[in-house]
Amino acid sequence: MRRKSGYLLLAYLLLAQAAVVASEPSADELLQKMIHAVEFLNYEGTFIYRHGDKLETMQILHARDERGQREHLLSLTGEPREIIKDEHVLTCTLSGNHSMMLEPRRKRTILPASIPSYGLSEQGHYQLQLNDRHRVAGLSCRTLYILPNDPYRYGHRLCIEEQRGMLLKSEILDHAGQTIEQVMFTNIHFPEHIADERFNSVMSGEHLTRHEIKTQGYLRTAPDPHWQIGNIPAGFQIKAVMRRPMDASPQPVQHLVLYDGLASISIFIARADTADALFMGATQSGALHAVAVVRGEHQITVLGEVPEATVRMIADSISYAGNRGAP
Amino acid sequence: MNVSKNERFSAMADDETQGFELRRLSDELLQTPEDLQRWERYHLIGDAMRGHLAPQLDQHFAQGIMAQLEQEPSIQAAPQRSRLRHAKPVLGFGMAAAVAVAVLVGLQNLVDGQNTYPVLGPGMAVQTPEQQNIVPVFMTASPNPFEVSPPVFHPNDARFNAYIINHAEHAGGRGIMPYVRVVGYAQPGE
What we know:
Chain A is mainly beta. Chain A is 14% helix and 45% strand.
């Protein structure tokens, strides 16, 4: 009788364990949940952003309702800066006389992390691995690794709150596994409603420049099809090609976007009016690398959240295939 | 947490810590939530003292700062050094308003345009333009002023800022880190 009871208990424990395992989401499911959560949840929090030897604090507000997504990103340390974005307008307030021009045409969150596209694991360039649990901003979260299969891109270590799917911590890792950039919430909550006035600018004072950019209003011109990229790393595809006015150049700038489902690389090609307008070199900010090269009278700038060698390889392979000189 | 650690974190919040010490303190902060919260308070206190806080940020923010000040014996007690430390950023901000034109955060490691190809790992051979048979794109028989070696670009160049923000808006997936680089902190004179 005692032995029979023991077997029953063992069977019960095994069934219970199986139930727990069955209820655990897979790495892919957790990633899909996170992708949905960062777009559709209301959240408000403070996070730290670490890159290199610098550590900064920022506040983020994100609301999703019948009017779409609204977001407010504000620096709490250093120079006052903020970005407020809704479905139609992006307002960027900075100190000094900065100016910038862009077309906020995509429905995209400004949550400071690389959020992959759906189906990332099926594309074969990254592996997903679930790992242990941690506690971030007072919430339990599950570690998810996104590891690249080649050295053309970086790895990511995410910590995702399992109940809602919210991303609480995000790190970009180099090939030695060292953290290059880190974003981590120090507090976060999920209000049912965020008042409209919370999306008003909180910055005031002298030396501030405010830029309001509406969705429409910039004329695009046809891209020059003769610009070619000789070396595109496996897995990256040309996602967009456009040519439009940009503050970076008095001439329209051709902008090509490469994307592998997680990392993206931009290629900007601009004709310089004078030799003084050309520049070259390499620079970085955290995981973002940029390389500038010159082709004749054209400035080519390649930048993206990939290793420097990747942007350099692409920059060096760009050529003009037209019969005559580049326009 | 002892007084010297408070001092070090306070100095870091005032941007008076650099190099290895800064990295070491950052690591400590990230491992200890209490320290991280304390560091954030130092930042907020510093911003409040410099008048950087936005009035609409939080209705009760001023009271909160005062309460936090009362909780910080190392700052209250302090020190001579503490007063000096908070005075310097006030001056620094005045200068920063005139000279800080960087939109970006912490661009670094300017490579001076040299062909420095970092080793990525096995299986990836980075080719030079010559190896890739790159065709010259601008050929003319007349002397070309554009053939003069262009200068190395400066990361604070406004053109580069425009590229970053356009990259943030148009490239990639659903979350774009460069927005943070735009909003983030740029050191005066960077």
